[in-house]
Write a structure and sequence with these properties.
single chain; alpha+beta; Potassium Channel Kv1.1, Chain A; 3-stranded mixed β-sheet; 3-stranded antiparallel β-sheet; 5 helices; 41% helix
């Protein structure tokens, strides 16, 4: 995979996640950072630092990006609002102890 096809996402602790650019673009905020006109560092270097998002939360967000790419186009919701793909319920797993931090990060990232 070519470097321009990936994006490096850096957590508050400095941990680096290299993800497919298509996956990162699930986030409207990241999409705007990487595609806005001008000479923004994020666009030039293909990396985005999140000083307020911990490694654990950023890892879960990266997992969600790939889950979204895999299931979003073929999702229907059942009566309990669970994603149903090909007759099987597909739910993105979120540990209860991560919920609050994930909600705050998702709000910032517009995911």
């Amino acid at each position: 995979m070519r470097k321009e096809d990936t994006v490096k996402l850096i957590s508050a602790e400095g941990f680096e996640f290299v993800v497919d650019k298509e996956a990162a673009m699930v986030s409207q905020t990241i999409h705007n950072m990487l595609t806005s006109p001008g000479s923004f560092a994020e666009r030039q270097h293909g990396e985005v630092t999140f000083p307020e998002i911990s490694t654990t939360i950023l890892e879960k967000i990266c997992q969600y990006f790939y889950w979204h790419l895999q299931f979003a186009s073929s999702i229907d919701l059942n009566s309990e609002n669970l994603a149903v793909v090909s007759g099987k319920e597909t739910e993105f797993p979120i540990e209860p102890e991560l919920t609050l931090e994930l909600m705050m990060a998702a709000n910032y990232l517009h995911t």
